[in-house]
Write a structure and sequence with these properties.
binds N-oxalylglycine; IPNS-like_FE2OG_OXY; four-stranded antiparallel β-sheet; metal-binding; IPNS-like_sf; alpha+beta; 186 residues; binds nickel (II) ion; metal ion binding; Oxoglu/Fe-dep_dioxygenase_dom; single chain
């Protein structure tokens, strides 16, 4: 509820899944693999899209607080739309770099599961958010993730024992999440 919100969200979900397919195809090709490789490794049509709406109220002392602490997203991809208030920063070459708000743009983060599948050829982006003194910031994030019981590890096509040994262990997404949330070694 409200009904209109449901309809808009369902429509958005359809478009997000189309965009996801396209991005995963391009990322697969970037690894020199068949276009469907990453999608099928993430569960194919069982891939999940989970929306989180972030709400950052104005903060009287923004220099003393963060909206979200530095982290990488544990999903495969994040598709993010902010409300036009800046605040997102990404870690690049040893500095926090502010991400511009481009009207109509969707920000795409590579998440942990793509890093694992690609055996580190793609790396999850470290990011954080600042708060704003005057304005409320909101962002709509869709996390694209495998089903919980899907086993994720470096793609066998990208691994060989001599030249490129696996850099990550293989485990279910549920196990990965549990370890990350509880700060256990992966
Ligand atoms: C997140 C996140 C960034 C933002 O929800 O994981 O990093 O811009 N959000 O709100
Ligand atoms: Ni995030």
């Amino acid at each position: 509820t409200p009904q209109q919100c449901r309809e808009v969200t369902e429509e958005y979900n359809k478009e997000i899944l189309k965009l996801t397919d396209k991005i995963l195809e391009l990322l697969s090709e970037g690894l020199g693999l068949e276009p469907n490789t990453l999608k099928s490794s993430l569960g194919g049509e069982d891939i999940e899209a989970e929306m989180k709406i972030n709400h950052y109220p104005p903060c009287p002392q923004p220099e003393l607080a963060l909206g979200v602490e530095p982290h990488t997203d544990m999903c495969a991809l994040t598709l993010l739309v902010p409300n036009g208030v800046a605040g997102l920063q990404v870690w690049k070459d040893g500095n926090w770099v502010a991400v511009d708000c481009l009207p109509g743009a969707i920000l795409v983060h590579v998440g942990d599961q793509i890093e694992v599948l690609s055996n580190g050829k793609y790396t999850g982006v470290l990011h954080r958010t600042l708060v704003n003194k005057e304005r409320t910031r909101m962002s709509w994030a869709v996390f694209i993730a495998p089903p919980h019981d899907k086993v994720i590890g470096p793609l066998t096509q990208l691994v060989d024992d001599d030249q490129s040994p696996p850099k990550y262990s293989t485990k279910t997404f549920a196990d990965y999440r549990y370890r990350k949330i509880n700060k256990l070694p992966q």
